[in-house]
Amino acid sequence: MSRESNPFVSPEWLDIQRRYLETLAAAGRPEEEADAEPAAQWQRAMEQWWEAILPRVPDASRSYFDNLLHQSRSFFAMTEEFARLVTDMAGAGGNWQSLLSRRINLMKERLQGFAVPGAEEIDPSQPWRSLLESWNRALAVMPDELFRGADGDALRSITDRFLALPAAGPGADYLAVVRDTLKLWGDYQEHCRHYCRVFHRLGSEALDRLEQRIRKRGSEEKPITSLRELYALWIDCNEEVYAEFAAGEEYAVLYADLVSSLMAFRRQSRKLLDVSLRQLELPTTETVAALTKSQLELRRQLQQTLAEQRRAQSEIEALKAELEDLHRRTGPPRQTAKKKRARTPDPGRRGHKN
Amino acid sequence: MNPFAIKPEQIAEEIYEFNLKLVRGMHTLAEMGDIDVGVSSKDPVYAEDKLVLYRYRPLTPRQNPVPVLIVYALVNRPYMADLEEGRSLIQGMLEAGLDVYLIDWGYPDAGDSHLSLDDYINGYLDRCVDVIRQRHDLERINLLGICQGGTFSLCYTALYQDKVKNLVTTVTPVDFHSRDDLLSHLAGHVDIDLCVDDGGNVPGELMNWVFIMLKPYRLMGQKYVNLVDIMDEPDRLKNFMRMEKWIFDSPALAGRAFREFIADFYQANKLIKGQVIIGGGEVDLERITVPVLNIYARDDHLVPPDASRALAGCVGTGDYSELEFPGGHIGLYVSARSRRLLPPAIADWLQERSG
Questions:
Q1: pLDDT for residue A251
Q2: Do residues A227 and B14 lie in contact, with contact meaning Cβ atoms separated by under 8 Å?
Q3: Coil vs helix vs strand at B100
Q4: pLDDT tens by residue, B16-60
């Protein structure tokens, strides 16, 4: 795209950028450098603003801000792509159809440029970045720095770090557990990479669908009137493509493999932890699990005992009530009569005694 | 014709406006402070382990003599049914003269990982029912189940028919293999024994991810970008934040109960086959002869209508009613429309059957 056709370097843009930066400056951040790359300015301005405001954000709200910021970033990135598309097409006249195809193909090529990444290599502005981050947050079982990167070099680095862990007893058993853990970690990473590849493929298909939709709007003479509308259309296309794929067998297997491989790794990492804990003569996760299990059994027994106690209590109450009712109907209790009899001297017995 | 009617200067202006709203909105958000949830006053009446049974304070001089116990799912938190003023299902039920109890399952931790469905249904749920029966000196009470809590209520009613007067199920999965059930489709291939080992729980964050991945672009990409539009409206923004708080307030799930639920219900679809066994008791839905009101959401992407409506062919009652809510899974509890429609419908249905 020529600099002339880029709305981000137009005189209006410079004015708007100035106004925006003034707003940001008013919000408490230093001004952006004037010679920064135009395409990165929105994002960088936002990052700096975010850093400035972060200390004031309540801890409990940070995840909302993060989500909002991530999505806004991806919105800016897509908006930039769409702005190029719209600007080019404004001057295309009757040639807009081939220009549209060219532009969409370029977007697909850019998308493929991000293909098969380790988590770090995904452009932060990519829309699925937040999905992957959400996944990582959900499943983080080890410190972040140990997880970074998924390619061969990074994996070797992870291996080294694992082997450099201060093992209390670096014996054969320990190394075997470490090796198993690494293998499972590698399996999980492979599934992650596969998952990413599929998302890139779906992203490309969604762009094809977007092209069809845009053409349709042209043929129906219902033009798109804002970037937000175009963005919403793109989201719709992604969601549709994803939903169709997710309903199929391939995705179900992919999804299950991702979840299962991660959970297998989680499980194995407990074993790894247990080896060290055992060496240090500390309770292992296995021990704690056994304890919680027996504690739960005690809880169950306690509830059973309490229930039996309540049942017995209610039976006693019922019997008491029955007895009282009986007394009302039959007169004084037999026990009282016995006592009376006991107090009455028995002539026969007395006689015998004597 | 050219499919775009957007001028270059309009593009820049649009982005500028978006940014401005975002920056201003971020300030509003930062100054918003704590997000309050739960609008109706309630008192704890029974507690056991992490569970608390609450009774809501009445809002009418007279109540339906048969109380209703709300059985919530183990996923997420029950304050969703009482999220905010004017959009609370529970508030609506109280205003309609119902005497409402609710089970809060709490936040399970490692000590609860061995809890089974038997513990939840024959244990906790049954004891809560007994507490209420005893407090009101009643043989039977009303049950209202929400989502997975509805499935629990069905199992419970099948096992303890003599303790339930009427059963209301809302967005409750019954047939776990219905068409368009993406959740079930995705759960189908997961090696559940591998996923949840002995002594482990399922992290709440994982469940968040699972739910987001049902509609990832809308629930992430679209939602937060649309949020910018309401960022200068503090009331709407606060409502949004309440919902966000609820969405991401996900307790861990007790590993064993989760494993049983996924294996028996989602994967083997045993509930409609009458093959679920809980604590040695066979859950046969046909044994349910008490009146049943089954409420489902027309646009539910978590529990598709067919998954709920399958109940009609499973229960043995001659008094079965269905109610379709025009909205989604969550909208059933938090939308203004639901607030208008649902509580009176539930209250009237129960009133007719509480004599």
A1: 94
A2: yes
A3: strand
A4: 788 778 777 777 777 777 788 889 999 999 999 999 999 999 999
Helix axes A227-246, B8-31, angle to 10 degrees: 70
- Which residue is closest to A304 within chain B, CA to CA? B123
Instruction: Using the predicted structure, report yes or no on whether residue B291 has a pLDDT greater than 90.
Output: yes
Please check whether residue A212 touches B, CB under 8 A. no
A6 Cβ partners below 8 Å, 6+ apart? A38, A83, A84, A87
Q: Which of B301, B294, B293 is nearest to B330 (CA)?
A: B301
Is the model's pLDDT at A117 over the cut of 90?
Answer: no
Please indicate if any CB of chain B lies within 8 Å of the CB of A238.
yes
The secondary element (H helix, E strand) that includes residue B276 is strand B276-278
- Return the pLDDT at B232: 81
User: In angstroms, rounded to a whole number, what is the distance separating the alpha carbons of residues A59 and A249?
Assistant: 41
Residue of A nearest to B12 (CA): A13
HEC string of B112-141?
Answer: HCCCCHHHHHHHHHHHHHHHHHHHHCCCCE
Facing A134 at nearest CB: one of B182, B209, B228: B209
Burial of A34 (0-12, 13-18, 19+ CB in 10 A): exposed
Name the residues of B annotated as catalytic. Answer: 147
| Coil/strand/helix, residue B96 | coil
Averaged confidence pLDDT in chain B:
92
CA nearest to B171, candidates B83, B79, B297: B297
What average pLDDT does the structure give for chain A?
73
Lowest-pLDDT choice from A214-223, A303-312, B137-146, B193-202: B193-202
User: Tens of pLDDT along B82-116?
Assistant: 999 888 999 999 999 999 999 999 999 989 999 99
B 13-32 residues inside an 8 A Cβ radius of A: 13-16, 18-20, 22-23, 26-27, 29-30, 32
**Partner residues linked to B320 by β-bridges:** B292
**Position with higher pLDDT, A131 vs B68:** B68
**Which residue does chain A place closest to B196, by CA atoms?**
A263
Chain B closest-CA separation from residue A265 CA (Å): 10
For residue B227, the chain A residues in CB contact (below 8 A) are 68
B225 and A CB contact within 8 Å: yes
Q: Is A235's CB within 8 Å of B218's CB? A: yes
**Strand pairing of B164-170 and B320-325?**
unpaired
Partners of B194 on chain A (C-beta within 8 Å) are: 260, 263-264, 267
